[in-house]
Amino acid sequence: MWVMSVTTLSVLSYSGSNDLLISVKVTSSGFVVHSVAYFLGMSLCCFSFTKNNISFVVWTGFLIFLYSMVLEVVQFYLPYRTFNWWDIAANGVGILSFVVVWVVRKEAGKLLSY
User: Fold this and answer.
1) Is position 111 within any domain?
2) 34 within 8 A of 87, measured Cβ to Cβ
3) Total count of domains within the chain
4) pTM as predicted
């Protein structure tokens, strides 16, 4: 569901003046929206599977980041969308933020179990 939602939102046209999403795209919170969306994507993916190791989290982050780059390249070819390096950076910030939170949580769990 997350992949379908992000893909759909990434290729939609924001041409309608009554479109709620245009306010998100135009404001400076676009960076925050991208970061939160990809943080959420990482958390959904990592907590949906039973693998609980760092290599799984890193590979998942890498694949989701590649997915975000593909979506940005697709937007380059859409006449009503634009390619934006800041969107890719924001996606990476969301992914890396999740990885940091996951590692801290994992290490805190180890410390508390001693």
Assistant:
1) yes
2) yes
3) 1
4) 0.81
